[in-house]
Amino acid sequence: MKRQLVLEDGTVFTGEAFGSMKESVGEVVFNTGMTGYQETLSDPSYCGQIVTMTYPLIGNYGINRDDFETINPAVFGFVVKEFCDTPSNFRSDEDLDQFLQANDIPGITGVDTRKLTKIIRQHGTMRGILTAAETEETDPLKKIEATPRLNDQVSRVSTIKPYVSPGRGYRIVLVDFGMKHGILRELTTRHCHVTVVPYNYSAENILRLKPDGMMLTNGPGNPKDVPEAIEMIQKVIPSIPTFGICLGHQLLALACGADSAKLKFGHRGSNHPVYDYETKKTYMTSQNHGYAITKESIEKTELELTQIALNDDTVEGVKHTTYPAFSVQYHPEASPGPDDTNQLFDRFLQMIENYQTQQKEETTHAKA
């Protein structure tokens, strides 16, 4: 079956349909990773987006049970140059087409993804529609225009109720804005007792749990669409060590008075170099975001710039100069991508230990 990807500027790409046969409207973005399509498809941060893979051959190692980042994928569509329907890998349980059908995700193959990526890089991300080519129904551009823009992606992918992943170590509250399983995996590997809570969990309820630390996860969309989280963070960070990742990084910065802006085409892939001012080292990172904290807005806050993107000089990391809180724009848990910055989870736990030691010393001094 022929299928078209129609961009809102009128550009049309025609290819073959695979996966779900449904029609879908979403923001068309591109991912530069050479591998990791399964993790990409199951990353909740892609909620509402039609993802284009820049690597030309996708699906050659199939889909396996171990590399999922969520149970229910939230991506709205998948665009590839060539889809491989005969995967060859000892871990493969099904092919990409079967996975997309099972999760009701439409795909298109046979598209010039190089040309599509160059259009997005030149003109910025734009909305598009995946639709059947042989149709005389409503003009695709009118369908795009008639489809409301999403501003509720976080509520679509966040957990509905709190739940616990037990451990004997530090007690961590993990605020789920669209959590990748890799983040929870890194905390449980370090024996943390993790309580996962919804994105709109109140500061009062978090403080009642008496956590040793709070982690703010990744998630989709515009951070300004989650004002309740910003208010919660403002109340919590003076007394609980906090670590933010991706959307969590943006929300922490907004809570501290910084500002955010939409990037022209975002950072999505597993090969983004980041320079760390503290270690004076460059790390390769995995990223997936369309918004970023503006550098000039940090100067008016108690935040300190700690890391910068070498490709476009955007903000990649900050830390609070008064409170025990820091954040990074990228994914230290990788999945997919390099794990150069995995030690940030250890840094978070060390920050908790240092904070508790400081609190004990202050209490002892006050009693003396």
TrEMBL record:
Top-level EC class as recorded in UniProt: ligase
Domain Carbamoyl-phosphate synthase small subunit N-terminal: 1-131
UniProt GO molecular function: ATP binding; carbamoyl-phosphate synthase (glutamine-hydrolyzing) activity; glutaminase activity
UniProt region (CPSase), positions on chain: 1-170
Keyword Amino-acid biosynthesis attached: yes
Active site: 246, 331, 333
Pfam families according to UniProt: CPSase_sm_chain, GATase
EC code: 6.3.5.5
Catalysed reaction, written as an equation: hydrogencarbonate + L-glutamine + 2 ATP + H2O = carbamoyl phosphate + L-glutamate + 2 ADP + phosphate + 2 H(+); L-glutamine + H2O = L-glutamate + NH4(+)
Pathway noted in the entry: Amino-acid biosynthesis; L-arginine biosynthesis; carbamoyl phosphate from bicarbonate: step 1/1; Pyrimidine metabolism; UMP biosynthesis via de novo pathway; (S)-dihydroorotate from bicarbonate: step 1/3
Function of the molecule: Small subunit of the glutamine-dependent carbamoyl phosphate synthetase (CPSase). CPSase catalyzes the formation of carbamoyl phosphate from the ammonia moiety of glutamine, carbonate, and phosphate donated by ATP, constituting the first step of 2 biosynthetic pathways, one leading to arginine and/or urea and the other to pyrimidine nucleotides. The small subunit (glutamine amidotransferase) binds and cleaves glutamine to supply the large subunit with the substrate ammonia.
Protein name per the record: Carbamoyl phosphate synthase small chain
